[in-house]
Design brief:
The chain is α/β, with parallel strands linked by helices and 380 residues long. The chain is 40% helix and 16% strand. It comes from Cellulophaga geojensis KL-A. This is Glycosyltransferase.
């Protein structure tokens, strides 16, 4: 049996939330029936490229999308579809920018064109954008997103989202869309006391209260606020350390801030790691003060591991699958976060596997569901 091939569209296949989500699905579908290929918009190789190719996927590279003048991109994409004309399903994960590849997919009469919402930002309005963002480039990006956001429905046959908040943000308040859960291999993240002891010992933090964060060092993830939280809680209790997993363009800025605040020695900058399900075991409290998100897969993983979680109240409460997560404001300074940390007292971790499964965030059922969807669409 020759598998059907689904074209997944991303910026790059690095270790971001949406990328990690689709890789969870890719690992668990029956690849004798459904195979993924990837259309990306960066020339350099990324973290998941080797694994994709090992599983039989093909990675195609396009130029970056220039939303102001996409003619070069459209030309390259038309050339691609002229020579790769067997795809019946294109699944785009570019949020507002999905309108660009799906427009050409529609032109080439590809019957199933899926836009997928992965983030939920503040409402985009021209007045708010020009008033609130002093950086000209960032303001221009927001204005472009406002425009293309209004056109995305013209080129899609199916609208997907990681959650209700993300879907409403991209498609509109009264829009219909399908929620594809940011599912994980819950068993891999289940609390393991032996792993916790092993990794705390490896990093010599056995007697510490370990705060942790996983994510790229970008404006969205709000690491600067996270560093402020650590600095302020250390005033009351010197026994905290912070573990940061990930890399990104603002990493050096955060390192410099930590040094300036004289707390660099209380932080472990681990960079990109592949053994997240093991490393997460040594974290006691997951601190996640993002400015905006969709439905973060890392918070599902953290709950599966039984961690206590303090998360920004900008994040949808759909992600609350256990009692271990609480939502806090980022507009009132660090005080609510510091107080919440100090109130936790002695931290015990729960076995949450059953709760993740009950919430339908385990990958097995979810991968079967999307596989059946793709197979059905391919027959139309």
């Amino acid at each position: 049996m020759t598998p059907i091939r689904v074209l997944q569209v991303f910026t790059t296949m690095g270790r971001g939330g949406a990328e990690s989500m689709i890789m969870n699905y890719y690992r668990n579908i029956d690849r004798t029936k459904v195979q993924f290929d990837f259309l990306v918009h960066r020339q350099e190789r990324a973290a998941f490229d080797d694994e994709i190719e090992q599983m039989g996927g093909v990675i195609y590279r396009m130029p970056a999308i220039n939303p102001i003048n996409p003619k070069k991109y459209y030309k390259a994409l038309r050339a691609f579809f002229n020579t790769h004309n067997t795809y019946k399903i294109v699944h785009s994960h570019l949020n507002t920018f999905s309108t660009f590849p799906l427009k050409i997919a529609e032109e080439y009469k590809i019957p199933t064109r899926i836009a997928h919402a992965h983030i939920a930002m503040d409402p985009i309005t021209l007045k708010h954008t020009l008033k609130s963002i002093p950086n000209t480039i960032e303001a221009l990006k927001k204005v472009v997103k406002l425009y293309v956001k209004r056109t995305i429905h013209k080129h899609t046959t199916h609208s997907f989202a990681c959650g209700k908040k993300a879907g409403t943000w991209l498609y509109g308040k009264n829009a219909q869309f399908h929620i594809m859960n940011n599912a994980i291999s819950a068993g891999n993240f289940a609390y393991d006391i032996d792993k916790e002891s092993e990794f705390k010992k490896n990093f010599n933090i056995q007697d510490k209260i370990v705060l942790g964060h996983i994510g790229r060092f970008t404006h969205q993830k709000n690491h600067t606020f996270l560093i402020d939280i650590l600095a302020d809680v250390l005033v009351s209790n010197k026994n905290y350390v912070l573990v940061l997993i990930g890399d990104g363009p603002l990493m050096q800025n955060i390192i410099e801030k930590a040094k300036k605040l004289h707390i660099f020695d209380q932080i472990l900058f681990l960079g990109l790691k592949t053994n997240i399900s093991e490393l997460i075991q040594m974290i006691d409290v997951f601190v996640f003060p993002s400015l905006y998100e969709g439905l973060p897969v890392t918070l599902v993983e953290a709950q599966a591991a039984g961690l206590k979680i303090l998360a920004s109240n900008n994040i949808t409460e759909e992600v609350k699958l256990t009692k271990d997560i609480q939502f806090l404001p980022i507009t009132e300074g660090t005080t609510p976060w510091v107080n919440a940390l100090l109130k936790l007292g002695k931290i015990t971790k729960n076995k949450n596997f059953d709760k993740i499964v009950a919430g339908n965030y385990d990958i097995i059922n979810n991968s079967n569901e999307i596989q059946d969807f793709y197979l059905t669409q391919n027959k139309l």
